[in-house]
Automatic annotation (TrEMBL):
InterPro entries, alphabetized: RmlC-like_jellyroll (IPR014710), RmlC_Cupin_sf (IPR011051), UGlyAH_Cupin_dom (IPR008579)
Matching CDD domains: cupin_TM1112-like
Full protein name: Cupin domain-containing protein
SUPFAM superfamilies, per database record: RmlC-like cupins
Organism of origin: Metapseudomonas resinovorans
Domain (S)-ureidoglycine aminohydrolase cupin: 39-111
Length: 114
């Protein structure tokens, strides 16, 4: 059996509620993580993230790939213009990004942290 390919078709992740480490700074946002994959060394994780409206202060220590399935949010890196993101958008956030993440309409996204 190979450890080089992990097929996620059969995964049934357990929902993890309000697990985000980000500081809430507006509204009453709540999150659900459906973590479908965690590398053996714990350095990579992927799954689905759902979040209700509210605002967080963020500080990225890892690289993140996101594919928005539903919702709308505004991510504002310190010293930069806000990025308006909606269903269908695919984007990457680099380590070191600090700023705010405001969920305007409930978001559901696929994510990969590496």
């Amino acid at each position: 059996m190979s450890d080089f390919i992990t097929v996620l078709r059969e995964t049934c992740p357990t929902p993890v509620l309000d697990a985000t480490k980000w500081k809430r700074i507006g509204g009453d946002p709540h999150t659900v993580n459906l973590n479908a994959y965690l590398s053996k060394d714990g350095s990579k994780i992927m799954g689905t993230w759902i979040c209700t409206p509210g605002k967080f202060e963020v500080n990225y220590e890892k690289w993140e790939y996101c594919h928005f399935l539903d919702g709308y949010c505004i991510i504002t890196p310190e010293g930069e213009a806000p990025k308006h993101l909606k269903a269908g958008d695919v984007f990457v956030i680099e380590p070191g990004m600090k700023g705010t993440w405001e969920v305007v309409e409930t978001v559901r996204k696929y994510f990969v942290f590496a």
